[in-house]
Amino acid sequence: MNKQRSFIGFIVAGAIALLVIAIVGFYWFFAKSPANLIASNSQPGAAIFVSKLSPVMVSLLANPDRLQALEREEELSKLKTSLFAKSGIDYKQDIQPWLGNEITLAITTLDIDRDLENGQQPGYLLALATKQPEKSHEFVELLFSKRALAGANLAVEQYKGVKLISDNSQPEQDLLAGAVVGEGFVLFANDPKVLRDAINNVQAPDLNLTSSPEYQKASKELPKGGLAVAFLNLPIVAKWQGLELPEQTYDSEIISLALNPKGLLAETTFLTTSEIVPLSPPLSKPVGALQYIPGSAGLAISGSNLSNLGDSDLAKLWKQATATLYGSKEDVVSRLAKPLADVQKRWGINLPEDIFSWVQGEYAIALLPDKEQTTPHWIFVVEKSESVEQGVARLDAIASSNGLSISPLIIDKQKISAWTELTTATKKSDAKEGASFSIETKVRGLHTTLGNYEIFTSDLETMNEILTTKDNSIIDNPNFQDSIAAIPLPNQGYIYLDWKKSQNLLERQVPILKLVEVLGKPFFNNLRSLTVSSYGTDTRSLKGGVFFKLHNS
């Protein structure tokens, strides 16, 4: 029988659902009672049960019942009912009285029996904080007695002073092992060995996660009052996924979730033993290039210095994260930036060499959805410099070599240079006169100078929007202002995504996103935008955050 499958069905899926719905519900409850949503512990106490070789540990540091505002959406009630329906357990009567302020789920080992011949069977550990040990003891006894009545064969053992209960389940039931350890936690696992290892980890502190130098350093990055935290041992995560990383720069990652008056801030820190050299000096304010990005933009990226982007630590991180989590050389960002990739292919250019190499000052890149929600329009704004002038001349030369003409245009009294292509079109005419032809001019790109910036666009409509709506830039958008206000300064710039404007594009380029939206429907229904940035000054870590701006916040 597949122990991994059975345990996931009963405990892991339910725990993850509790964590997801609880996190989603933070927004709703925050509007009602923000003072009550500060976690009592900034670090998970259950880390003492988890091996320092664990690939992943995820913790909710608040009792899910504190998210009472979710009851009006009936999401939490439905989850509690469905999670324990098969077991005959009543959540309100049997669990609620003793459940404390922590739920931790960890993968403790990649293979419980370390036997490669029978496949990989990860060990799962679920730790529930208890505030009433006697009640939690009663719950464990009740749970396993009900399983015995359903046909399971129970096994009871004393291990280092702890009573372990497990069952030899029937094929249609879930394999389960459980114990109450001390006065603090109720543990469940998919194998008694996982519980024994957890007890060993407590009694031999050098084995557990809290003794790991990487975890100790990562824990120092956690903000006070964070409501959820996750720790990832990146090399072991890659091994778990069966991946060989071409480049291993970062060793571990810690993620925390905290409330903000305008939404949710997820902060993450990647740690390494090598020294990190920043891509460019941090920015103390948003770049001026954003003033030329219209407020209608669905995606906007801004910062400074693209000349050494490929060799930056941020690029190394992205390559490692893509290989570890996405499992493919083709990363999500490449898909989202497809319009720019199409330009690269059409013109026969290499973006890093032919464009990014001469961008040493401020820049902003944006995608604007069109009315048909098909291919978005693009904008590229770069701060003027001698290298930029040389770069523009080089692009003009590339355009000419591709058969395009450099045509001068005037829009709203502004001189524009357009890369144009002449094509012929056949018109139907009288048979006696034969076919007639017309010449059409197609614009393949434009650029102009405004102030201290050179602006490139994909089409005339986009350039016209920039020139005629100067007082409606993204920098003046209240939603954008609220989003970047949540990101600490100084930082390396922003990636800003308006969810409503970009949703169709994202779903086309990343199909799995539709499934994620179904699982997190309450969250995505209220998501207005998300903003990503990197910041921090530690030379041994890369710190950043994702701010989720939500409706009515």
Gyration radius, in Å: 28 Å
Main beta sheet: 20 strands, antiparallel
* Unreliable segments of 5+ consecutive residues: 1-39, 69-73, 324-336
What share of the residues does DSSP label as strand, in percent? 25-35%
Average pLDDT confidence is: 77
- How many H/I helical runs? 17
Q: Which structural class matches the secondary elements?
A: alpha+beta
Please describe what this structure looks like.
With 553 residues, this protein is an alpha+beta fold. It has helices at residues 3-32, 75-84, 91-95, 133-149, 192-203, 213-219, 234-240, 313-326, 332-336, 338-347, 351-354, 386-401, 460-468, 478-485, 499-509, 512-519, 521-526; strands spanning 56-60, 99-109, 123-130, 153-159, 162-168, 177-181, 185-189, 228-233, 252-260, 263-271, 299-304, 362-368, 377-383, 405-411, 414-427, 436-450, 453-457, 494-498, 527-535, 541-550. The chain has a 20-stranded antiparallel sheet, sandwiched between helices. Strand 4 and strand 5 (162-168) form a beta hairpin. Helix 1 packs antiparallel against helix 2. The radius of gyration is 28 Å and the shape is elongated.
